[in-house]
Write a structure and sequence with these properties.
- The complex is a heterodimer of chains A (191) and B (698).
- Chain A is an all-alpha fold.
- Chain A has 9 helices and no strands.
- Chain A starts with a helix and ends in a 6-residue tail after the last helix.
- With 698 residues, chain B is of the alpha/beta class.
- Chain B is built from 26 helices and 20 strands.
- The longest helix of chain B is centred in the N-terminal third of the chain and has 24 residues.
- The chains are: A mainly alpha (191), B alpha/beta (698).
């Protein structure tokens, strides 16, 4: 049990996918202008990442490794994740329309999200067990959400500040992201 | 190598299979109209409409969340096609336009100095912005940046100005404005708007029973945009020529300049632009919404009926006016004498309303020639009752029906009918005439009698001059024209001579006692003070009420509620819907005898309710509807920075000339005077105003 807690802390804080591994930068900058959007995106990522982690782990363990086809990992993961997202979208539209409406345009966006792909590949690289995959995927996704929501909050406050013209908007956002990333560095060595 | 190819084929196959099955199982029925609408839209996915691409817009249209005119690129033709697919009435395919509702900009008092980023949204997050006015424009131009069509710019006064030619009504400015100043509306939305508690409106506009945007039209006059001023007035009042002449302008009582100086002569300015249009010889075009296919019968062609018909027609409905008199106009034709409102002017004004496509049937009376049953069977979807208040109250004293005794409305109407050749006998007037009453009808009677050559005309009123309900200008004009006033006199009886003709009026002298319910001091008779006044003609003008006798034998009338004041009952004075859901009322018929402008405002409110009723929506007014109240904090006790400048004098015919003819007594002000008067307006809004415009260059 203790291992799982450590794993969660490591995924959320120490190895935060956005601020320590620098994956998924496009949604990090793109969907962080408004708190509302950031929360929507965070929810969608949690949902998709756990499913993608599990499915890709199954595909890797039971097919790729068994037939010695590890070199097809990246290309087959792309296919699996894309199909999965499409499937989930259809499923939600039919069965849970409320959730579908809530996640809205963020679901298809995740198809091309490198954070998802990255987590799936990390899971394989670290040779996690099935349970560990679920926990780590969830942890990474929560870490993604945490960083995104924190960042959106900061950006909403930045609107009130006097920012020199050349640094306005994306530039100041990148500077802020850098400082946020530095603060997350403080967790290094915790686990 | 073979394994790799096989594996990828297999994986692709599995994914494809799973997705195909999922598509089958999780298929969600999608309205085929969505695809059809999407085919009609421009397909540019520009996002100008505010939806994520054309397919999202199509979904919104089919779900009724967006109007058929959602596409900002395609014109009204596409909108009509889309409307046909979706099956909504084409009326809602009117183009949307953006309007700025704050005219204040920079002049509101500053609360703090702001040094943050140049964005209204950021500024609004700090205590609502740096100005004391909590509802006003912050002027940092988020709307200007949001406009993809270059239709907005910050004007010289620091608030956004819309270029209506470029605006496509996409709503981007409305979405970004943190103060809800930019509003996207169709023409119909503007016509239907009632003053709200959270509107940015000056005290004069709050007071005007017709809710005319007074500061706006005065500023248009100041900028020589007379046509724009006429259009602004016509958004609320179709009878500007008549109102410009006869309105007692309650708006001027609340004018902020009036607190420190003389109030702006608002009504003179209205009359100036109205006369400007008439004298220019061409009518300013009035736009109407696309036809809705609904038919409305307007019973009564007076100010309320004309106003209601005008607004319903502009909202796209088919309107027919039914009137009992030979010509339209009601009380403003038959009650208001020629010298106050020339019939020629009135005819020109009514013609303008009929030109919109309003049909009219004269000489047909409700209850005699038709009833509600026949209107319903003729296919009218709603009925408006604006039958006015034509029944004179009687004095209930002995001898009041003697030869030589008349009642006010009856006298004025018979005279007006005869004067304009609508039939009826001429009235033989007396030499010593007395008119009983202190209202405008009484004054109209005495001034008419003066012009008809009566030697001695007296007003007998039971209170004093201060309590007279007539307009002060009218009282003064009557005094100038030589009318005698007997105040504090209560008629007791009319004494006949041996031929049964009125000879003397006996009255009791009165004194003022305690204030009554209306706040005026109640007159109390003095015992034994009977006095005689020699008369050979007596007119009783002590008030009038609606004639509701049509109810007695008409079909479908049983459910119509009548109040104890004999007016038609409407539960809500804003909704004006009677106890029969498809019947609406306004004007004197609903309120009892009141102002012309009140009837015009009522006509518009009723038109709004009828429009809502015909569109299947609730007629109840929005919860924040102001209706004759004032927004707290907008009525000041003192106004700083006003330089005293006298208001423009109204030109009038000299007294000895005007008492001989029925020519119009009050004349229109000159253009120079109008411009000068318009400079006196402080362009007030809710809490801010221009300190003194007169000092600014034109």
């Amino acid at each position: 049990m203790g291992d799982y807690i450590l794993l969660v802390i490591s995924c959320i804080l120490v190895n935060n996918i956005l601020l320590a591994q620098y994956l998924g930068n496009c949604p990090f900058l793109g969907t962080s202008k408004k708190m509302e959007t950031a929360v929507g995106m965070a929810m969608a990522v949690v949902f998709v990442l756990v499913m993608a982690g599990v499915i890709t782990w199954i595909a890797d363990t039971f097919f790729l490794k068994r037939f010695g086809l590890e070199y097809l990992r990246t290309i087959s993961f792309i296919l699996v994740i894309a199909a999965l997202v499409q499937f989930v979208e259809m499923f939600l539209k039919k069965s849970i329309p409320a959730l579908y409406a809530g996640l809205g345009i963020f679901l298809p966006l995740i198809t091309t999200n490198c954070a998802v792909m990255g987590v799936c590949l990390i899971n394989i690289k670290e040779e996690y067990t099935f349970m560990q995959v679920i926990v780590s995927s969830f942890g990474y996704a929560v870490g993604f959400g945490l960083a995104l929501i924190l960042f959106a909050g900061v950006r909403e406050r930045i609107l009130l500040a006097r920012v020199p013209k050349p640094l306005q908007d994306t530039s100041i956002a990148l500077v802020t992201a850098g400082i946020l990333s530095l603060t997350f560095y403080a967790f290094k060595g915790m686990v | 190598m073979t394994e790799a190819v096989l594996f990828m084929l297999l994986l692709g196959g599995v994914c494809g299979l799973v997705l195909s099955f999922a598509s089958k199982i999780f298929y969600v029925y999608e309205d085929p109209r969505i695809a059809e609408v999407e085919g009609l839209l421009a397909g540019a996915n520009c996002g100008g409409c505010g939806y994520a691409g054309c397919s999202a817009a199509a979904v919104a249209v089919v779900e009724g969340q967006a109007p058929p005119s959602v596409c900002v690129i395609s014109g009204s033709e596409t909108a009509a096609l889309v409307a046909a697919v979706v099956g909504v009435d084409a009326g809602s395919a009117e183009p949307m336009r953006s309007y700025n509702t704050c005219q204040g900009g920079d002049r509101a008092v500053t609360k703090y100095h702001y040094m943050g980023i140049n964005s209204c949204r950021a500024l609004a997050a700090l205590y609502g912005g740096m100005r004391e006015c909590s509802v006003g424009c912050l002027g940092l131009g988020d709307c200007v940046r949001a406009c993809a069509f270059d239709a907005l710019k910050i004007g010289p006064d620091g608030y956004p100005v819309v270029d209506e030619a470029k605006c496509v009504g996409c709503g981007a400015c409305e979405k970004v404005c943190p103060k809800n100043i930019m509003e996207i509306k169709t023409m119909s939305d503007k016509l239907l708007h009632l003053n709200q508690y959270d509107d940015r409106i000056a005290p004069c506009q709050q007071t005007c029973p017709a809710e005319i945007d007074i500061p706006k039209y005065i500023s248009q006059i100041r900028n020589n945009d007379y046509e724009g001023a006429v259009k602004t007035i016509r958004e609320r009042n179709p009878l500007l020529l008549s109102c410009g002449r006869v309105c007692p302008h309650p708006c001027e009582d609340l004018c902020r300049r009036g607190i420190e100086d003389e109030a702006v002569s608002i009504n003179q300015l209205k009359r100036f632009v109205a006369d400007y249009e008439m004298n220019s010889g061409k009518r300013i075009p009035i736009s109407c919404a696309l036809p809705t296919g609904k038919k409305v019968a307007v019973v009564g062609g007076g100010p309320a009926g004309l106003s209601c018909a005008y607004f319903l027609r502009r909202l796209g409905h088919e309107v027919t006016i039914f009137d009992a008199m030979p010509k339209l106009g009601g009380m403003i034709r038959y009650g208001i004498p020629e010298y106050r409102l020339p019939k020629e002017v009135l005819a020109w004004e009514i013609e303008g309303i009929l030109n919109l496509g309003v049909k009219s049937r004269a000489n047909v009376k409700l209850g005699r020639d038709f009833d509600m049953g026949s209107l319903v069977s003729a296919g009218y979807d709603a009925i408006f009752l604006g039958i006015g208040a034509w029944k004179d109250y009687s004095l209930k004293v002995e001898g009041e029906d003697l030869d030589g005794c008349f009642t006010g409305i009856d006298f004025l109407t018979r005279f007006a009918k005869n004067q304009q050749g609508d039939g009826g006998d001429s009235i033989k007037i007396g030499q010593k005439c007395a008119v009983i009453g202190g209202g405008n009808t009484a004054i109209d009677c005495v001034r008419t009698l003066v012009r008809l050559g009566a030697k001695e005309v007296t007003i007998v009123y039971r209170r004093t001059r201060n309590e007279m309900p007539a307009n002060m200008v009218e009282i003064e004009a009557a005094e100038h024209e030589g009318v005698k006033f007997v105040f504090l006199a209560a008629p007791v009886r009319v004494i006949a001579d041996d031929k049964g003709k009125a000879k003397q009026l006996e009255y009791l002298k009165m004194e003022l006692g305690e204030p009554d319910a209306s706040g005026r001091r109640r007159p109390v008779p003095i015992e034994g003070s009977e006095t005689l006044l020699d008369v050979d003609m007596l007119v009783t003008a002590i008030g009038q009420g609606p004639d509701v006798s049509f109810k007695e034998d008409g079909k479908r009338m049983d459910d119509l509620g009548i109040t104890r004041w004999n007016t038609i009952d409407s539960a809500d004075p804003v909704a004006l819907q009677t106890s029969i859901p498809y019947v609406f009322t306004a004007g004197d018929a609903a309120t009892g005898a009141s102002l012309v402008v009140e009837a015009i405002g009522g006509g518009r409110r009723a038109a709004r309710s009828i429009h809502m009723f015909l569109s299947g929506k609730a007629t109840t007014p929005p919860p924040k509807t102001l209706f004759k109240n004032h927004i707290p904090g907008s009525v000041f006790d003192a106004v700083d920075g006003i330089k005293q400048t006298p208001r423009v004098k109204m030109p009038e015919l000299p007294v000895d000339e005007r008492i001989k003819t029925f020519d119009e007594a009050d004349l229109v002000i000159s253009e120079d005077d109008a411009l000068e008067e318009s400079m006196r307006c402080l362009s007030c809004c809710l809490s801010c105003y221009n300190k003194d415009v007169a000092d600014l260059p034109l």
